[in-house]
């Protein structure tokens, strides 16, 4: 996405810039449609690419001022993994340490940044859709589908983390406060997400893994169906089976290749970064280091003891790829994430020449997740299943993890076993939080975890607070979540 122009929204008006330049956090009341910008098909395509840049975010190592530079998904582990029993921050200092202790407040800057980043993606998508007629007629349907896929993807993240949020599907004017600051019920947000993803499925193909595709839209829609308050299990099952039966994706035989051979056969959708390029790289990989620190801070995503125990029990070949004790120098409660070592370099290489400007992609969806969602859809909220299709999908995951004993006989799968398998297979990929919510066990699991760790957990933590800054800007129109 290097040197691609994109639209920037700012309080005082607008500017044009490359993705290497500074941009302001987008505030919902400052969206401005720039008629002069979109003049050709190339300009509309640049606008589409700009939506991906909003997700990509700006490397914290490059631009440290969080007030001026959105991080996109680079902070997502704080809002997800850190709020589960999987990981924690290495220190108790600073706002990034609030997440794992469940003490996030409405002025938390990382939560605020994530909220702004997702709305920046939404605003950019809406702006592309507003000027879609300028694109070549042969490209209009594809650009529309791509923008709607990305808008749905952003809203799916927002609605699961913040609950009711403003639903903005057009380019608003400066006085459209009701649209910009009225929180819309979750069910209505899901209706829009489903509509956008269904259109994407009907138009897109599978020619890309780093941009929207039909399979990516199918997989995310399957997860949407599983997540709704009244899950659409048959719909999710059908979508997963469509991806599985297409034979366009497969598990990587070597688990490590999933993360260090990018855009491999298992990847369905990834947000890309470029190693060594300060403007196109990410810094979260370096921040996962702690004992021998490569990042700017003391370390994030430190592995909790009970997750280490799960790897010991059912991790198999996934264990050494996922976590590390630095050749035995770390205790069980000090293990670090190994799944996203900067460009694959470990501590023996000082984490490589570009530790703080790493190129590891953010994996948004991969085939293993689809296989496990397939099992979940067949389970359909039940306690267990012996369905042969579910057993086949589950066994594919197990056989890769334990190749020496493959084929690993599996007679049945319980809900608890599926959740446990997802925890280990997808550890540190920001799925655990959403899994606990979807399986209906978040309060029980996290309540027990909080007692074990000496934290205080209550039901308010199931939603993050609406950022205080946004409420202030709205003049009180935007309301807060309970308990904040």
Describe the structure.
The protein has 484 residues and is mainly alpha-helical. Among the domains are: 1-80 and 87-143 and 441-484, no CATH class; 273-360, no CATH class. 43% of the residues lie in helices and 8% in strands. It contains 18 helices and 12 strands. The chain has helices at 41-56, 76-79, 109-130, 137-162, 177-181, 186-203, 214-227, 233-246, 257-260, 284-287, 305-314, 318-322, 367-379, 388-401, 415-425, 432-438, 442-453, 468-474; strands at residues 5-10, 13-18, 87-88, 165-166, 183-184, 267-271, 302-303, 323-324, 336-337, 362-366, 384-385, 413-414. The strands form 6 sheets. Strands 1-2 form a two-stranded antiparallel ribbon. The chain starts with a strand and ends in a 10-residue tail after the last helix. 50% of the residues are buried. Mean pLDDT is 92; it is low at 1-33.
